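User: Could you go from structure to sequence for me? I need the amino acid at each position, not a summary. Structure tokens:
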């Protein structure tokens, strides 16, 4: 989340600077696209009981550069882009994952040395490089910032980072442990998306078509675990 905060801070400073320049009569750049940020929640979809997740703690942040173009004189637009998909799953139980050699990943309880200790957070984080694609319909095609916009599409992503994180108390001391590993997660993901809204605000839906874990290497009961999330989108310019 520190990485996410840093990226958002850079974007905020950049936009603030642009508006400040505009107040000083300096022309703002006419960028050919937009920066879109999605904030959403990850929901339990075909997860085994051991991986039951907390919806509010299981969040997603997508930061994408999107370029769109009208298709002729129609109310339809195509849109494509590139960005980061930063997801995390917060589990109700204190669990961790173990992937040894070419064996399937196992779900194991996370334990501490202190029998009177307590777990605060048990998290799996997955970070992707994404390529989103959409076909959009604008009710006012000549003024796309007015009226409603409906979009259907999807995205393809490449997993470049994954880790578990545990926050717990041990001997009355708050501790954090992280384990960076692939855990036999699928290196590629792809799924369908839908979006509806107006101007710079939209709601979005995403459903993963392929399982989160690799075939034959998933934890028992998680063979069909898939991504499922909903949230809000903000276009910055």
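Assistant: Here is the amino acid at each position, in order:
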């Amino acid at each position: 989340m520190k990485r996410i905060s840093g990226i958002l801070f850079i974007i905020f400073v950049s936009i603030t600077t642009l508006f400040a320049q505009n107040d000083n009569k300096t022309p703002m750049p006419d960028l050919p696209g937009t920066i879109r940020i999605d904030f959403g929640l990850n929901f339990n979809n075909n997860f085994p009981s051991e991986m039951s997740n907390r919806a509010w703690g299981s969040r997603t942040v997508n930061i994408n550069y999107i370029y769109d173009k009208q298709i002729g004189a129609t109310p339809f637009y195509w849109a494509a882009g590139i960005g980061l998909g930063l997801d995390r799953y917060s589990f109700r139980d204190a669990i961790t994952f173990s992937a040894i050699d070419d064996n399937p990943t196992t779900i194991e309880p996370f334990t501490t040395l202190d029998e009177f200790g307590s777990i605060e957070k048990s998290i799996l984080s997955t970070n992707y490089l994404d390529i989103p694609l959409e076909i959009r319909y604008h009710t006012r095609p000549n003024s796309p910032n007015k009226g409603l916009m409906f979009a259907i599409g999807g995205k393809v992503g490449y997993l470049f980072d994954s880790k578990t994180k545990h926050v717990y108390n041990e001997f009355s001391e708050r501790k954090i442990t992280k384990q960076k590993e692939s855990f036999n997660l699928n290196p590629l993901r792809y799924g369908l998306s839908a979006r509806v809204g107006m101007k710079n605000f939209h709601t979005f839906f995403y459903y993963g078509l392929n399982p989160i874990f690799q075939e034959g290497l998933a934890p028992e009961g998680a063979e069909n675990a898939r991504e499922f999330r909903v949230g809000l989108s903000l276009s910055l310019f």
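One structural detail worth keeping in mind: Residues 33-235 form a domain with the Porin fold (CATH 2.40.160).
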